[in-house]
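Supplementary notes for students who missed Thursday's class. We covered one full example, reproduced here. Read the sequence, then the structure, then the short commentary at the end.
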Amino acid sequence: MGLFSYIVKRILFSIPVIIIISIVCFGIIQLPPGDYADAYAAVAASTGGGSVSKEYIEQIRERYGLDQPFWIQYWRWVKGFPEGDFGIAMSLQGTPVTDILKERLPMTLFLNFSALIFALLIALPIGVYSATHQYSILDYILTFIAFIGIAIPGFILAVFIITISIFWFDSTYIGRLYSNEFIGEVWNMDKIIDFLKHLPVPIIAIGIAQTSNTMRIMRGNMLDVLKQPFIQTARAKGLSEASVNWKHAARIAINPIISRIGVYLPEIIATEMLVSIVLNLNTIGPLFYDSLIAQDMYLAGTILLVISIILVLGNLIADITLALTDPRIRYELT
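Structure (token representation):
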């Protein structure tokens, strides 16, 4: 089986997986007792708006099809997918979910993939260095820092960074991705510069755990590869130590990291959601939380489905990348 056939086969396998995921996502959102109408009535009562009449609650249920069986509600949701219609966000005054995704999803993807790239760019060279300088003082220091990075949750780190920036550096940064004066403004050079100034905090908070974890994995992989006979052969041929470490050993040691991209993505996305809630970022994290509280099945279900599709695509890309980078896998596919 060639590489092209392998890619086509993996894509075809992903289609039924996504269909099953959509059913599971929609079902999970409806597991808690009650529905959006009940949540609406509870919020109205708790905020001093008075009790909502049963007739109005029934009107809400009828308007959004909440009184229909599960499969009918599911069909009403998915039938618009081919046209890009994901229903309406009941908790946001009937705003189309598609409009919300267009506004929030690009920034969410940017932050997640930026955090992933940040983790890989920092962790891989450090992991190689620690393995090639095993038991050195710097190796011990880097290992200790990695353990701390793994232990501290991202949202706690975000609060810690903000605290340091305010009390030690007299900063006014208290979250968000840009300053208050740029909220709702069109993107221009001033807003881009302000955005870049705010960007390091969420990226570090989101990616620090994966950076530490990837460094530890890369170090262990390198130590195993450096003991292989082909490494000794490369050294016997007179290759430089840098060539042996980076061209031969690191190329093999990085393969398990590539295969774990599908594992990294859900961890990074979960961290991003918590960090975005703490920092009040303009991503889908705070919306997902609010939609779960409101039991908005269309908005919460769509966000959960989009995240699941990203994970499926991440695994697909990881498999394809591994097939391209590892000659052994390419040989097996031919």
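Commentary. Residues 113 and 312 are 15 Å apart (CA to CA). The radius of gyration is 24 Å. If anything here is unclear, bring it to office hours.
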